[in-house]
């Protein structure tokens, strides 16, 4: 009992400390209950706040506009899957255009583009200002009879003039060839020392339709082809292949991967089975390749 009682006996200093603690607790409780700690409402100028939000929104719109992909003039005949998707075309609309082009047909106006692809009026209005057709479409010249072939009979190889020596003025005598296209053909030919290898390279000249190319080759042909060293497709490296027109590093890797898979190409036509191979350019690519 004596031990139990000792727990409740304090010295004078301890009693003073306990009393001070009790007073402190009571004081804090009073402060908590009777003192208002809430802050005053912040006054906001509604007009200025609305003006600030408008400026902020305009800056956001401006930033979005800057980040939009820019559209440059282009020929709609050469729209790819990626280009069509970036323009807002659906897969079906792109497929319709690609199927139309596979028939060696050409779109020559915004109206015809819509007829082929079935795009909406709103999409056509948005992208058609960027359509850029060849000059012979936008500014056709009066039809004239070719001075080289007055009849429907094809002239012989000996009668044709050398495409590697023809002048721009001579080319302009072909129906559908104006000053721009004739100069473009000459510039493309002169990019290569020795000129064209084969008539098929005319397909790489921008703006030449199959019909115009046929009229050119009815009167001109490559008689003095540029000499080249052909690359063995079954021994070529990636660095060898990328020196050829229309072959980039990705395609070169795909060509070699397919070669390893089939244990060597038996014919150059086998390139058509290579992933992402530009089949429409195979005749040009084959000019630079051999099987041995």
From TrEMBL:
Recorded hits in Pfam families, A to Z, give:
HHH_3
Q: Which residues form a coiled coil?
A: none
Keywords tagged on the record: Membrane, Transmembrane, Transmembrane helix
Instruction: Give the domain of life.
Output: Bacteria
TM segment ranges? 16-35
Presence of the UniProt keyword Transcription regulation in the record: no
Q: Which InterPro entries does this chain map to?
A: Endo/Exo/Phosphatase_dom_1, RuvA_2-like
Q: Which PANTHER family match?
A: ENDONUCLEASE/EXONUCLEASE/PHOSPHATASE FAMILY DOMAIN-CONTAINING PROTEIN 1, ENDONUCLEASE_EXONUCLEASE_PHOSPHATASE FAMILY DOMAIN-CONTAINING PROTEIN 1
- What is this protein's record name? Helix-hairpin-helix domain-containing protein
- Which organism was this protein described from? Flavivirga algicola
